[in-house]
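Kindly inspect this one:
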Amino acid sequence: MAPALGTLEAGKCEELLKRQEVGRIAFALQDRVGIVPVHYVYDEGWIYGRTEPEGKLVSILRNRRVAFEVDEIRGMFTWQSVVVHGSFYLIEPDAGGKEKAAHDKAVQLLRRILPTTLGKADPVPFRDQLFRIAVSEITGRFATLGGTRIGPSGTRSSDDGASPEADVLLRGEVVAAVSKAFPLTASKIRIDAFDGIIALTGLAETPAERIAIEREILRIESVRAVVQQLETEFPTEQHPTPAEMARNAVRELEGSPGVAPGDVKVVVEHDWLRVEGTAATQEQRADVIRRLRTVKGARGIIDRMHVERVSA
């Protein structure tokens, strides 16, 4: 029989999320996608899970936006798959109020699938950092047998200029060169190759080493271009992401006297901070600009604020 492919209704997607216990979180950082398997519980628009403190998932906090996938597979053409998009949050156990309630609820839910969660008999006690994902979008697909056989469409996507074998060889050449010149750093660098282009992510020891690594790679004749996204380990401070800049800008606005929530807003655009809204006075406007100039990583301020009254 031929397979039938289709879209899962929202209710069916939620049923699948409730049935399963293991899913995968996908996140992007430094233009590189990571995927981490976790066990979880879905409840009323939230996904609850646990991880190690300071583990891989902590880097998600630089962005928060994640995708979460769950599959239920019985055969090649009998399966269901759900993809969730949402925002990732750590749950702080020592905080009060809503955070304490969220922590207690997470433990209660996770004990449905592992009764010893965070107890004396917990098989993974080191995974004591709880998290939750606020679900903003759910989509699903399914395959089942019994459909009508459909022939090829006759149209195909093209990948002009691609040379997979050459890219594999090029990556090997670059990895060998970096490992030879910088043996202590090589394990901290991720190297990808596509279309003769080398993409670098990860950590270099110092800014000088970062530049030296780039020069070493450019010496390789078959390298056509380098995407340089290495960060430096010393100092350990990383370049803020746009999401981090937005959060820091909001904190600065909250500290500006007389600026009510909603009066002034910030748009982060290509590392520039664009300020929109209304200030009560010129002095208040100047204070907002002064505070936003302290946001690390911002290239500058684009001031589009209006002033309600001009000071005498």
Observations:
- Residues 242-307 form a domain with the Histidine-containing Protein; Chain: A; fold (CATH 3.30.1340.30).
- The chain has a mean pLDDT of 88.
- The longest helix spans residues 164-181.
- DSSP finds six helices and 13 strands in the chain.
